[in-house]
Amino acid sequence: MAHPDFIEVYDGALDAATCKRIVQRFDASGQAQRGETGSGVNVKLKDSWDIRISGREGWGDIEQTLNMAMLAGLKSYLRKYAHAVLAPLQLQMPDPKTGELATLDAERVAALDDATLNALVFRVFRPGSINLQKYIADQGGYPYWHCELYPKADNGETLHRVVLWSVYLNEGFAEGETEFLYQERRIVPKIGSLLIAPTAFTHTHRGNMPKGGDKYIATSWVLFNRAEQLYANPQVPQVLQKGR
Asked: Residue ranges of the Prolyl 4-hydroxylase alpha subunit Fe(2+) 2OG dioxygenase domain (predicted)?
């Protein structure tokens, strides 16, 4: 049995027409700015043009569309890798037959109906801010090997990141893969496909230069809710009993 690498790709997370509309709106907006890393703009590390659409006027519909695609993929991811939520937290739910609290395990998570799994996701996680990114043909890329989990002096939110996700918004170019170092795996961009992977150093990755055409992606993270919210009222809904 092959060992999992915790990198999942979900084809058709967005339809091609929606992806095309996002790309067209990006190019027409005039809002793109030089892409930043955690330490700021450095085109030797990351050469891109970005629009952070979360909370930006005129982008709410696109933000919602992308987050809904992410949510569908995240539920599939949790059904396969339940310990992404079970290992950091002790989760309990009422038994549907007895009404007594029962500790969730991987089998129970995999069997949850969509509505209940939605409640669990919203109780434990929150969406990160979404970046739309354009990498210019034969020039752009993110060649620096990096991960998505790190301390930042002015923003502790980076330490709450659980998984990264990207939606590939176009094709029509060569290379431009998302390459994972230790897994020795390259994800070839396919329009509308959703990539989900862990954020820590184990999944160090880079974005290779697109050849012969520009590359567009939407990218973000799924974060834990802050502890103040997680434990403020664990009875509503009754999906989180206590932390480890």
From this structure: 132-222
Nearest to 23 by CA among 128, 134, 182, 174: 134
State whether residue 160 is helix, strand or coil: helix
Q: What is the pLDDT of residue 239?
A: 52
Q: Answer whether 74's CB lies under 8 Å from 94's CB.
A: no
Element spanning 210, H or E: strand 210-211
Give the pLDDT confidence score for residue 244 in this predicted structure: 41
Cα separations in angstroms, 34 against 43, 131, 219: 8, 12, 15
Q: Is the preceding omega at residue 210 within 30 degrees of 0, hence cis?
A: no
CA neighbor of 56 nearest in space, from 88, 100, 26: 26
Helix (H) or strand (E) holding 122: helix 114-124
Does the pTM of the predicted model rise above 0.70?
Answer: yes
For residue 186, the model assigns a pLDDT of 98
List the structure tokens of 18: 């929606």
Handedness of CA 65, 67, 73, 79 (dihedral sign): negative
Tell me the chain's radius of gyration from C-alpha atoms.
19
Which residues are CB-contacts of 30 (< 8 A; sequence separation ≥ 6)? none
DSSP 98-162: T--EEE--HHHHHH--HHHHHHHHHHHEEE---EEEEE-TTT-BEEEEE-S----TT-GGGGGEE
The two three-digit tokens of residue 145, written as one number: 């090997």
Residues of the chain with pLDDT under 70: 1, 39, 233-244
